[in-house]
Design brief:
This protein has 138 residues and is of the alpha+beta class. Helices cover 32% and strands 26% of the residues. The protein is built from 4 helices and 6 strands. It has a 4-stranded antiparallel sheet. Strands 4-5 form a two-stranded antiparallel ribbon. A hairpin with an 8-residue loop joins strand 4 and strand 5.
Length: 138
C-alpha cells in the first residue's frame, strides 16, 4: 500500500506534537495504515491512527459552446493522522523548510532601523540636527 506524507502548513505545525499526516488510499483501514508505516519507518512506535475522508469538490465544467454548465467532481481523499509515541518520522520537505528558517536572518523594518540608529547616536553623545518648519534653516 502506498502512503505519502501530506505537505501543508497544517501538517508541518502538527509535527511539533508528534502527529504526522499521510495521504492513504480510500479503501485503507487502520490496520493497513499501521502496517505500511511500520514497513516504511521501522524505528517508530505508533500510539494512535485517525482516518478522515474528504469529499471531492464539485466544479463547474465547460462542455462545449452551448452546453454549460456541466458539473464534475474531484476524487475523494483519505487522510491518516498518525500519532507517534517513540521515534521520529523524517520528511524531506519539512527538513528543508526548517533549515531555511534557521539560516534566514530576520529582516528589520524601516521604522526599527531608524529607531536603532537614533538610539546609537544618543548613546554616542552626538546631537542630531532638528528640522524646523522654515526652509531657510538647514
Amino acid at each position: 500500500m502506498l502512503i505519502t506524507p501530506r505537505i501543508s502548513e497544517k501538517s508541518y505545525k502538527l509535527t511539533v506534537g508528534n502527529i504526522y499526516v499521510f495521504d492513504v488510499p480510500v479503501s485503507a483501514n487502520k490496520a493497513e495504515v499501521i502496517a505500511a508505516i511500520k514497513a516504511q519507518y521501522p524505528d517508530v512506535k505508533i500510539a494512535d491512527v485517525r482516518l478522515m475522508i474528504t469529499k471531492g469538490k464539485a466544479k463547474a465544467v465547460n462542455r462545449g459552446k452551448r452546453s454549460r454548465p456541466g458539473v464534475a467532481t474531484r476524487k475523494d481523499v483519505k487522510k491518516a493522522y498518525v500519532t507517534v509515541r517513540e521515534g521520529k518520522i523524517e520528511i524531506a520537505a519539512f527538513n528543508e523548510v526548517a533549515n531555511q528558517m534557521q539560516s534566514e536572518p530576520t529582516k528589520e523594518t524601516k521604522v526599527e532601523s531608524k529607531v536603532k540608529a537614533g538610539a546609537e547616536t544618543k548613546k554616542a553623545g552626538l546631537l542630531t540636527r532638528r528640522r524646523t518648519g522654515n526652509r531657510g534653516d538647514k
